[in-house]
Amino acid sequence: MNPNLSRLQSYPFEKLRALFEGLTAPAGLKPIRLSIGEPQHPTPPFIRQALADNLDGLSTYPTTQGTEALRGAIAGWLMRRYKLPAVDAATHVLPVNGSREALFAFAQCVVDGSRPGAKVISPNPFYQIYEGAALLAGAEPVFLNNTAAADHFGPNFDSLPESVWRDVQLVYVCSPGNPTGRVLGLDEWRDLFERSDRHGFVIAADECYSEIYFDEAAPPLGALEAAHRLGRGDFRNLVSFSSLSKRSNVPGMRSGFVAGDAAVLKAFLSYRTYHGCAMSPAVQAASVAAWSDEAHVQENRRLYREKFDRIEPLLAPWLGIQRPDAGFYFWACTPLPDTEFARRLQAEYNVTVLPGSFLAREAHGINPGADYVRIALVAEPGECLEAAERIAAFCQKL
User: Fold this and answer.
1) What are the residue boundaries of the Aminotransferase class I/classII large domain, all occurrences included (predicted)?
2) Under CATH, which architecture does the 56-292 domain have?
């Protein structure tokens, strides 16, 4: 067996189950789960219909590269969304079965684990796929703490010495961030691009929350957009990862894409051809429909905006929360240790939130997720409001 399998940590939700062992929640309160970032808004009917209308495609093997129609729809969306003058659908875009599997597989393709000291940088707190991908690619994860003190949860690239940067082969970036909702600015992208040029590493930009934001006139800056604005129209050493799961409320379709550096994607396509992970033709057809429509995405954002508008005033006095730049999480500072807060909230009010320490690792002397909880506003507005009222009552009682 791969010896690095033994280095994988339990997933946060396994830790949560262990934390709640032996608890009996109040029978008179229905359970409300705000712990997992699983969209629960209804899937738009036209996407469901497109999927049903293309079931004949199940009789054929799909190609790993996907159909021209899907790559074209994605390229068109990228140009509209990020104001890019040109995206070559044949070389700059590759469909994937959701961003999660692609983020993991990408490290297996990019990292040369035979090189001594190979390193992969990840934000901290982080999406645990980054760590597992690095370990199983034979590299050492290096964590870049994102704290409130460090420019409001932004990355401090200078906090890592040049001796570390020299061995870095891959950098995972999550913007908007999970769990903080922080969006990287143009100067931060410039800094990271310059380091990539200097040390030769590849950047994997996880942007699965990019379409959940609050001002229709000010969408979050994207990685490819930043590259274009900084004169890097070839997207060298940069690949962006996106998904329909959050944008279009179709997590079960497992549909996303990677886009960016044509040379890197050519190698990744070769890897994926052997990996055997082509997208179902029916899912491809439904994805074309989804990427080609913005009305349902605007309605989705309206629902999230309504929830944040109503819930922020309820929780801010108790948890010091601020609206994130984007995404559907509150990253809330707790008056108790985060695990005790989550356990007692579950036991007394039947509301599930995720301890922040489960989303981070101790690095540079601290666990930057400690004493925070992640609150995912994914349920219907009424259910989220009820949960917020229970959380506020719990905090008031402390």
Assistant:
1) 32-391
2) 3-Layer(aba) Sandwich (3.40)
pLDDT reported for residue 112: 96
Compute the Cα dihedral for 283, 285, 291, 293 and give only its sign: negative
Q: Which residues of the chain have pLDDT under 50?
A: none
Amino acid identity, position 61: Y
Query: Does the pTM of the predicted model rise above 0.70?
Result: yes
Q: Which of 372, 202, 196, 159 is nearest to 142 (CA)?
A: 159
Token pair for 372:
């925070």
Q: What is the pLDDT of residues 274-290, one digit of tens each?
A: 999 999 999 999 999 99
> Cα–Cα distance between 269 and 275 in angstroms, integer?
9
Q: How far apart are CA 321 and CA 319, in angstroms?
A: 5
Are 256 and 102 spatial neighbours (Cβ–Cβ below 8 Å)?
yes
- When the pLDDT of each residue in the chain is averaged and rounded to a whole number, the result is 96
- Sorted by where each begins, the domain ranges of the chain are 3-42+296-397, 56-292
CA distance 321 to 377: 13
Residue with tokens 């050492």, as numbered in its chain:
140
Torsion angle defined by CA atoms of residues 110, 115, 121 and 124, in that order, rounded to the nearest 10 degrees: 120
The DSSP element (H or E) to which 337 belongs, if any, is: none
Provide the b/e sequence for 42-72 (b: ≥16 CB within 10 Å).
ebbeebeebbeebeeeeeeebebbbbeebbb
Closest CA to 247 of 222, 272, 274: 222
Q: What's residue 113's pLDDT?
A: 87
Strand ranges across the sheet with 354-355: 329-333, 372-376, 354-355
CA distances to 217, 232, 299, 303, 365 from 213, in Å: 10, 26, 12, 11, 33
For 178, the enclosing helix (H) or strand (E) is none
3-state secondary structure at position 94: strand
Pick the CATH number of 3-42+296-397 from 3.20.20.140, 3.90.1150.10, 3.30.930.10, 3.40.50.300: 3.90.1150.10
The residues pairing with 101 across neighbouring beta strands, listed in sequence order, are none
**149 is written with which tokens?**
């003190």
Phi, psi of 258 (to 5 degrees): -120, 145
